[in-house]
Design a protein that fits this description.
Chain A: Keywords: Membrane, Transmembrane, Transmembrane helix. Chain B: Keywords: Membrane, Transmembrane, Transmembrane helix. The complex is a heterodimer of chains A (145) and B (451). By secondary structure, chain A is mainly alpha-helical. Helices cover 66% and strands 8% of the residues of chain A. In chain A, a hairpin with a 2-residue loop joins β1 and β2. Chain B has 451 residues and is an all-alpha fold. Chain B has one domain. In chain B, α1 packs parallel to α3, α2 crosses α10 and α12 runs parallel beside α14. Chain B starts with a helix and ends with a helix. Classes of the chains: A mainly alpha (145), B mainly alpha (451). At the A-B interface, β1, β2, α2, α3 and β3 of A face α10, β1, β2, α14 and α18 of B.
Chain lengths: 145, 451
């Protein structure tokens, strides 16, 4: 999470890039990639050098690969620790208002929806157990007024 | 007995690793499944264990990718895209947990229907296997044209088949001259990490950079915590209404048979058919989500299993994408000649070891996403940075390419990734088309130029 101060100060600068659907800081990505590639290949080559002395010949490649992937995972942990995620998490509260908004946005008729729910015992029971049936009913009443 | 135990352990690893990966939203299926499955194969896991691993991974990932889809309204991956609208309706009504419960219950049912159906159909189609194997070259080419036409780019994909085949074959000749062996893992990885790599190329281009620049971090809206059942393992059958169970069963059965179509396409189609027969926003959304996630699951499983059992050559979008290492992962598995899970496993094996994978994934991922969905996604979002994720997959791609062909492998992977990724991102020539052209390239070049 980015703290609010640095965020508001630098909103004018476009310092983030979107890679695979999420935002990153270019330099940090560069370092992460260098670390990850170096540690993975390093682990693999270390294995190729070290394992022949303790393992049978046909297992050397597999063990080395395993050491390489260990390196990849370790660098994932390390990079996550050093470079914090750039995401803003907003905790949502669903309210009566937003429910009303949804129905308006979707151009749904609340009465019709309510009638369909009331006339279908299975759905009615399901919503009752979820504790949202009352919300639907209240919403229906609100619109009528 | 020990083989069963090995398969079980690999399924366990697959289920745990992919339950966590599923929580990371927007992850590309092929880019993640291919390197990790290759890794398991190259490490020398027995074929049946590879299969259990794959099945567990697929189901686990799909069960947990429902979490970002339902709680944040962003697709867990490409197959979850058609579900976003309905998930958003329920999320805004304040019932994201209902969306999640319906989705993963539908997914579980879909998976267990798809497995036996796909094994039986694969067994049946197996009698035509000789024909398919002997004319694989022309089948790959025709399939490439068909898949290209139905890809996002449509005509450009068809137009690019011959140039792309020429490109692949040239690289193949080049690397053969250098190493005196034909490479394939490096090609695969290149196509798989292409979209990710093209974003990075954009980032390093002074002119193209603008399109991916952002002034502030991406925002995620997370729905509040709600739990509405008792105990640790809610019964998926109790969560769905009879009507939803019925529709899920029917649609997942049908979509297990249509293994040549794209999972996303089948998901949208089936969701639309069932949704249009359901009245009321709440019922429509919940029913559509149940059915759609069930269909995603069943097409996925069927598309991997049917070509494996029947032909041993990858003839479906999933077999060409995420499941491709099960067909081709030299030196362990090869397509030409067919020497892969098709040769090592009987239909019965596919059923038993597939079942192990599905059961293990259900026992791990299902209660996990039911009970800890919100907590887990907050942890992932807060502590695992995108930099680290992208770096990890690039590191993995380098590692596997290096394992196949040292620095030539790495150079080849990123050459293919650059060309394939840009074709994919800018022109909409999907990874499936590229994989198909890769398989067809030898036949196309031999037919055109006699080489």
């Amino acid at each position: 999470m980015t703290d609010k101060h640095s965020n508001s100060r630098e909103t004018e600068q476009k310092k983030y890039l979107e890679i695979l659907g999420d935002t990153i800081v270019p330099n940090q990505l560069l370092f992460s990639v260098i670390i990850s590639v170096a540690v993975s290949l390093g682990g693999y080559n270390l294995g190729l050098w070290f394992f022949p002395s303790i393992a049978s010949e046909n297992m050397v490649a597999s063990y080395s690969l395993l050491l390489g992937i260990t390196g990849t995972v370790l660098s994932l942990v390390f990079c996550s620790f050093v470079f914090k995620p750039k995401r803003i998490l907003i905790e949502e509260e669903t309210s009566f208002e937003s429910m009303k908004e949804v129905f308006e946005d979707l151009q749904l008729d609340v009465d019709e929806e309510l009638a369909l729910i009331e006339n279908d015992p299975i759905t009615k029971k399901e919503l009752e157990e979820l504790g949202v049936l009352e919300q639907f009913r209240a919403l229906g009443g609100e619109v009528k007024k | 007995m020990s083989l069963l135990l090995t398969a079980f352990l690999f399924a366990l690893i697959g289920a745990i690793v992919f339950s966590l990966i599923g929580l990371i939203s927007g992850t590309d299926e092929t880019a993640i499944m291919v390197p990790l499955t290759l890794l398991v194969i190259l490490l020398g896991a027995p074929p049946v264990a590879v299969f259990s691993f794959f099945m567990a991974a697929v189901l686990a990932k799909h069960l947990t990718h429902a979490v970002p889809t339902a709680l944040m309204g962003i697709p867990g991956d490409t197959t979850a895209v058609p579900l976003v609208d309905h998930a958003n309706t329920l999320r805004r009504m304040g019932m994201p947990h209902v969306a999640l419960r319906k989705m993963i219950s539908g997914g579980i049912i879909g998976a267990f229907i798809a497995l036996p159906t796909a094994v039986l159909l694969g067994q049946f189609l197996g009698q035509f296997a000789d024909f398919f194997k002997s004319s694989a070259g022309i089948i790959f080419t025709l399939a490439a044209i068909l898949i290209a036409y139905f890809s996002k780019g449509r005509w450009v994909s068809v137009l690019m088949i011959i140039p792309f085949a020429f490109f692949i074959k040239s690289l193949d000749l080049m690397s053969f001259t250098l190493l005196e062996k034909h490479l394939s893992i490096s090609f695969f990885l290149g196509i798989a990490v292409g979209p990710m790599f093209s974003d990075i190329l954009f980032a390093t281009s002074a002119s193209a950079k603008r399109s991916i620049e952002r002034s502030k971090p991406k925002e995620y809206n997370l729905a509040p915590e709600t739990k509405a059942w008792k105990g640790y393992f809610p019964n998926p059958f109790k969560i769905l209404t009879n009507r939803q169970k019925f529709f899920t069963a029917i649609t997942t059965f049908i979509s297990s048979l249509t293994f040549v179509f794209s999972p996303v396409g089948m998901t949208s189609l089936m969701g639309e058919i069932v949704g249009s027969r359901t009245k009321g926003a709440y019922k429509k959304s919940t029913t559509s989500l149940t059915v759609m996630n069930g269909v995603t699951e069943s097409t996925y499983i069927a598309e991997a299993i049917i070509p494996l059992i029947a032909f041993g050559i990858p003839l479906s979008p999933v077999a060409l994408g995420p499941a491709s290492p099960l067909f081709n992962a030299p030196p362990v598995f090869t397509v030409d000649p067919v020497n892969n899970l098709h040769t090592y496993m009987t239909s019965w094996d596919f059923f038993i070891y597939g079942l192990i994978g599905l059961v293990v994934a259900s026992l791990i991922a299902y209660p996990f996403s039911m009970n800890y969905a919100r907590k887990a996604s907050v942890i992932v979002m807060k502590f695992v940075s995108q930099e680290a994720i992208v770096a990890m997959f690039l590191g993995l791609a380098c590692l596997l390419a290096f394992h196949e062909a040292q620095f030539v492998g790495i150079a080849l992977t990123f050459t293919v990734a650059a060309v394939g990724g840009l074709l994919n991102r800018i022109l909409g020539i999907g990874a499936g088309v590229q994989f198909m052209v890769f398989y067809a390239s030898a036949w196309i070049m031999a037919t055109l130029f006699g080489f």
